[in-house]
Design goal:
Number of helices: 2
Oligomer: single chain
Strand content: 35-45%
Distance between the termini: 48 Å
Radius of gyration: 17 Å
Number of strands: 9
Shape: globular
Order of helices and strands: EEEEEEEHHEE
Largest sheet: 4 strands, antiparallel
Helix content: 10-25%
Strand order of the largest sheet: 3-4-8-9
Structural class: alpha+beta
């Protein structure tokens, strides 16, 4: 078995844990994040954000993290992991990148600058210049 396929992904039907639809290896390839849909916007990375999945110690969940952008998500499947990742990036954008500087601590302002230098916001098909703070 490939070293990129390390965990089995169990797809359960409904609440009955005895009804397994299929058992498939979980792909452990990198996530290359270029775009995140968020509310009526799209968050576009200037350079793709590359995240390498890791299994938890119990091998039951997959983790993605990026310390510089304060990303840390965990989920049982790749699909759930991507949804959690998009949600966390959107929340970070809303809570830090769009917040007024006077409402943020020094560390939060530094995170805001990192987010705004990595991401451009597009609304209704019209890019907004997020490079200027």
């Amino acid at each position: 078995m490939s070293d990129k396929l390390e965990k089995l992904d169990l797809r359960v039907l409904g609440a009955n844990c005895d009804a397994v639809e299929s058992i498939e290896p979980l792909a452990m390839s990198d996530f290359d994040v270029r775009e995140v849909p968020w509310r009526e916007k799209r968050l576009l990375f200037h350079e793709p954000l590359k995240l390498t999945p890791e299994l938890t110690a119990s091998r039951q969940h997959v983790i993605l993290k990026d310390d510089a952008l304060h990303i840390h998500v965990i989920a049982p499947t790749r699909e759930d992991l991507q949804a959690e990742l998009h949600e966390q990036i959107g929340v970070l954008w809303s809570e830090y990148a769009l917040e007024a500087d006077e409402n943020l601590s020094d560390a939060a302002r530094a995170l805001k600058m990192r987010l705004r230098s990595a991401i451009n916001e597009e609304h209704a098909g019209i890019p907004q210049d997020q490079g200027q703070i």
